[in-house]
Each structure stands twice: as C-alpha cells, then as structure tokens.
Amino acid sequence: MSVEQTAPPRALRPAERIAVAVDVADRVRLLELVQALKGEVGLFKLGKEVFTALGPAAVELVRAEGAQVFLDLKYHDIPNTVAGAVHAAGRLGVRMLTVHASGGEAMLRAAHEAAQAAAVPPLVIAVTVLTSLADADLERLGLAGPVAQAVERLARLALGAGADGLVASAQEVGRLRRGLGTAPWLITPGIRPAGAGHQDQARVATPGQAAADGADVLVVGRPITQAPDPVAAARAIAAELGGGAP
Ligand code: C5P
Questions:
Q1: Atom of ligand 1 nearest to the CA of 47
Q2: How confident is the model at residue 80 (pLDDT cuts 50, 70, 90)?
C-alpha cells in the first residue's frame, strides 16, 4: 500500500472524482439516486444491469437531470460493430465509456475514431484483465500471464491505440500510474471507505489510498447507494479526497 502521492491527479474537484455505480434495474430507484446525488458526484456509472433493464432511457434520464454518464458496457466485438456502438453512445451524450482491451488494436482504434466523431467526444476507457480472473484462468484461456504482466501488456496496447484511460483495480493502479505517467485516466473500482462492508469485493482500497496511488476517478457503488444516507456517504468520500474542498 502506497501512502505517497505517486502522480498528481488531473485538476478535478473531489466530487468530480466519484463515479457512483448505479447497479439497479428500476427506473424509480435510478431517478431517486440521481436526484439525490447529482450535486455530490461527478458521474453516474450505468452498467449492464441498468442498461439491459431500461435501455438508453437510463442514459437520457441521467442527462435530463444535468448529470454525466459513465456508460460501462465493456464493448468487445468486431471493429465496425464497436464503432457503431460508440457512435450511438456519443449521440446519447455519455462522458465516458468502456471497451475491452482484448478486443484488439483495430477495435480499439475504431472505438477511438468513433468517439472523436461525437460533438463532445466521450473518453474511451479500456478494461485490461477482469479482476475476477486469476493466473490459472489465463492459462486455461491460453493467454500469456501472469495477470500483472497481461494487465500491463493490454494497458500499453489500449493506450497506443487511442484509449484515453484504463479501468485499474486498487491493486494495479499504483504500478500503472508509475509505469504510464500522468496522461492516462485511471478509473478504480473496489473502493470501500474505512469501516464499510466489503460485500463481494475481495480486495479493496479506501478512497484516500486509491487516490494516493494515482486513481483519477473512484467507482463506488453500494457504500453510497445502500448507505442509510447516500448523500452523507458521498460527502464523506469527497471530504477524504479533498479535505472537504468544494
Ligand atoms: O458496489 P460496488 O462499489 O462494489 O460496485 C463496484 C462497481 O464497479 C460495480 O458496478 C462493478 O461491476 C464495477 N467493477 C468492479 N470491479 C471491477 C470492474 C468493475 O467492481 N474490476
């Protein structure tokens, strides 16, 4: 665990560094969370659950409330199909979206080019190796490991092909920031404020640790959405990130 700041984060206010993962399937609950939290966090991360349940209306709901969307659908397909999906996401006005780096260089370039065509280009954030996979899984998949090396290989491939940043677990973020410098956006899930329950997350970091290791944006779901007071939970995280600065 690093206690030193390994790289200065880009100039973001503490609240802008929080992406709240809204893993719900219900429109009313989504609206309730967005209305409560839109002044407290930078992004609402909409993933496969909410998008499959509600479709683009989920993105439109967040945008209509004046808030930003991180569309986490982890695109992985042939370049033409991914380019079409990224174009569509751009038209919906998302701020950030995810693709799988393992989709390969041509797919990553197609995603980058499609993003650039949007009026406000969304940031293309690449997923390297899913944190649910261990060295033995890579071996069974016939992929060169260990995981740490595969992460670095895929990270460099993605950034070289135009990705703006990476999803980096709390375990990876310090190493990636040191190795890749300040340019890439690093987005870190698995965040648990001290004292919060871990739920199904095996390895977690506090907001302060992840930020000190070089994360730009922290993905926080249940510690905010399932807190008795989600606004207070988001404010406590922002305070940890910025000493309470506005
Ligand atoms: O509720 P919690 O804070 O665990 O939510 C974390 C969010 O980040 C979920 O939407 C989860 O799918 C996502 N995520 C993750 N670990 C990764 C990549 C994404 O927890 N390695």
A1: 10
A2: very high
